[in-house]
Amino acid sequence: MASAALKDELDIVIPTIRNLDFLEMWRPFFEQYHLIIVQDGDPSKTIKVPDGFDYELYNRNDINKILGPRSSCISFKDSACRCFGYMVSKKKYIYTIDDDCFVAKDPSGKDINALEQHIKNLLCPSTPNFFNTLYDPFREGADYVRGYPFSLREGVPTAVSHGLWLNIPDYDAPTQLVKPLERNTRYVDMVLTIPKGTLFPMCGMNLAFDRELIGPAMYFGLMGDGQPIGRYDDMWAGWCCKVICDHLGLGIKTGLPYIYHSKASNPFVNLKKEYLGIFWQEEIIPFFQSHNFSKDCTTVQKCYVELSKQVKEKLGKVDPYFLKLADAMVTWIEAWDMLNPPNKDSANASSK
Amino acid sequence: MASAALKDELDIVIPTIRNLDFLEMWRPFFEQYHLIIVQDGDPSKTIKVPDGFDYELYNRNDINKILGPRSSCISFKDSACRCFGYMVSKKKYIYTIDDDCFVAKDPSGKDINALEQHIKNLLCPSTPNFFNTLYDPFREGADYVRGYPFSLREGVPTAVSHGLWLNIPDYDAPTQLVKPLERNTRYVDMVLTIPKGTLFPMCGMNLAFDRELIGPAMYFGLMGDGQPIGRYDDMWAGWCCKVICDHLGLGIKTGLPYIYHSKASNPFVNLKKEYLGIFWQEEIIPFFQSHNFSKDCTTVQKCYVELSKQVKEKLGKVDPYFLKLADAMVTWIEAWDMLNPPNKDSANASSK
Asked: Cellular component GO terms, alphabetically (chains A, B) (predicted)?
């Protein structure tokens, strides 16, 4: 099971490719998969894809054509546009990675097949209801420890696999400014489930998920061109996904696999994008921490639409941006359902 | 700070010493500390302690003499008796370890100074309110990642440091029987805070805590001689401590340091001790998961006494054992306060 490559069930979504070495480096691991490239900037520029890759490429014009007025929910000139790729995919699983992320090496010096580890993570259950001190009990050589209730040992389906980064850590602008030279060199050989009721900062650099289980909640919000904020796209998606997974009994894992994050983005540019988020997240986190879904919320879509209403009601007071975001959340679901109609063969969690 | 040895502020509590090599092996790391040995079996047998160690030894006769009728709360012929040592200590910190736990080696082959790592864990804050994907943000080379709310970055005081075990994993009897050859060989180079609201199975083999912050909740229950259950002493303490820490805004960390657990206990004997616990924990866990303290519970003692009432009320139905345990919990607090009067110099959390 864990060694399955899922060739026909997984798409790789890449927000853009500025670095020509990127795909060459990943060739041994990515070549067998279908790529969806969502170009984040000027549509007149051409993205070069090396020979041998099976891919589809969408630029802004394509997004506008496919979604019509609903394209307003997809960010422009920001890597948040990648979520359009999640929507147009017809596969069960998605892996998304940034073009400044390269193949990392494990402590023995061997290249890490990040995708293989994500697939392992997604194919075995999560354990959000009780912490296991030897971490993922489904990993070879590990199990549930003494005192772990037997009724909880089946676990729950895994919806998200959050991978980490060696070299440049995913710090915010203030931390980047204070610690410009800090590098993550610690390889922590571990995967764990983030417990139920606990929020985490989900990074979109090296992320895999099950579209059928959680796809409609994997919306990366309104960032970039025309928006007051950036670099909160993956965070927003992570907070929404976490509360929905907790409600629906799904799991989110974090830890392995590592990629090698090659270059730090400019902390001054980042600060400009982030500074409103630094204030706003002080309101956003309590909002998500105290959030409860009604009993009617039996699908991801229903959860997401209800969440959008509460964003409007409770976060709209923080800044008018959240009124716009709440509307975009609804538009996103409409667009998702348009491209993934509930009666289609590919069973979508929303159609159950 | 992190390199402080806390020589005058930490006692090592050992439930018994059957293995003469045990203290010799730990000599370089333990010799500077005061040991409290609580003999778990026949008081007429003599425990040999090698020269050069500073220790006090308590057998059953001593416990009876010191606590009088309240000695009924201390288990006999079971390593759960170790909690008497927590009570008689006058130090701020406790480290407790089993006599079949030896010095482990890190991946570079170096002996691990378990106590030093526990002290590091206890001296820097915990982060129970939000998960940090690079784990302990206070560790060298790590920090809070992007998206971690700044208002939560001070963390909370750390009350408990739960260390792990290489070689023989801490499995229950059924898992031991199914996987007799499984060994834990994975060194996970990591410490993390167990999030608020999440229970975990706390193992007493390799455990450190801050007596002033959480001592009165570190009661190992009624096990062994005359009791229907064993091997749930540390679990019970862990569940009580976790809900109290969550309520009082204290943290519990797990992960490093490792010790080398040398020998598996007999799974058939273990099954006999455990089997009632295997049923009961299916009721115990929901009890703790749904537990809430009243606002009056501002000290560990007050929390613990309130908890004992609810144990009586809600778990008493499961088995009369819990009625006895609930009474013993109250007796334990009385005995604790007798030996650690609130007005003493050594500031106890209860006296604040």
From this structure: cytosol; Golgi apparatus; plant-type cell wall
